[in-house]
Design brief:
Strand order of the largest sheet: 1-5-4-3-2
Number of strands: 5
Shape: globular
Number of domains: 2
Number of helices: 4
Distance between the termini: 46 Å
Order of helices and strands: HEHEEEEHH
Strand content: 15-25%
């Protein structure tokens, strides 16, 4: 017996992984040749089929038959290549309602930070009432993680 919520969560997670992904290249991708080389290396290491359709600092390509555009930005650890589907509606989660999809996206993106927070906070809790006092701290932790790792960054070129 399959649980619909779990199946929907799996579908949304797979669609999110297709819709957008990023990686840290070995180089800073200072020119279009380095950018193309970084994309080729990523595809080779991931075992994916890559076809570059437009080179440049904002290249366009297909990976396993899905069209993407890419750009790079810099984090505190160097260059990061961000790849986004050109047609995100083709990601495969179209049968799930908008509100349900939004809730599941939130769960997927906040699951790891919440688990890390709980692993750090729970051993320090002596009384259950202290856990309630930690909730605002947990919310602040999530917000700081979102800002520090660029999830709220502007996606314009």
């Amino acid at each position: 017996m399959r649980i619909k919520g779990v199946e929907d969560l799996r579908t949304v997670a797979q669609a999110e992984a297709l819709r957008e992904f990023s990686f840290r290249p070995d180089t800073m991708c200072r020119n279009s040749r380095e950018f193309t080389d970084a994309l080729c290396q990523y595809a080779r290491e991931s075992g994916k089929d890559l076809v570059i359709t437009k080179e440049g600092m904002y290249p366009e390509f297909t990976m396993d038959g899905i069209e993407y555009t890419a750009y790079r930005y810099f984090s505190r650890w160097g260059a990061v290549v961000q790849c986004t589907m050109k047609y995100p509606e083709q990601a495969g989660d179209g049968k799930i309602s908008g509100k349900r999809k939004l809730i599941m996206r939130f769960l997927i993106r906040s699951l790891v930070p919440v688990l890390v927070f709980l692993v750090i906070a729970l051993p320090r809790v002596e009384k259950p009432s202290q856990l309630i006092a930690l909730l605002p701290l947990g919310a602040a932790y999530l917000i700081l993680l979102k800002f520090s790792y660029g999830n709220f960054r502007e996606k314009g070129h």
